[in-house]
Amino acid sequence: MTGVRKGLTRVEVALRWDPSSTGTPANDLDIVAAVFEAADPYGEPVYLVHFGSRSPDGTITLNRDSHTGQGFGFDEVMTLELDRMAERLGRVVVGVVIQDADTGEGAVKTFGDIAGTGVRIRDGHTDLALGGFESVPDATAATIAEFTRDGSGAWSLDARLRGSVAGPEEFARTMGAAHPGP
Question: Whole-model pTM above 0.90?
């Protein structure tokens, strides 16, 4: 899942996965977005958007949330209205985290343990990026997209997958950190 696109306005990030096997802890994946000031794109996030929240200005919403992966198609969907964001905001990082990755039995659930994972990022009806988590099987969280605003105000997408072994709270704090190289 890689790609760079410019001039984005309203983007949808969708996530799918298969339910866990009967008798095992539920597969619960969540989309999370961290929003940063243009003046401090790698500092502390201005705000986070995740299950049970939305951006204060209503430009980022979680339209669908699943705790199990049951259903058809994409289980979670987040909409980012980049063209409506305040000019002072210049970077949005989107990630996925496995909730309750600690199974309580001394094991940790990773993307390699969850079948049928997939991510779709689209602008209108145009797919910008498609992929899964096969390249980060040992991760419990991953960044999937970085949206940045250039000097003219146009938003672009860098859809690069980066795995993490951080828990949900730590991942939310660190997912926007600068990453060296590709």
Answer: no
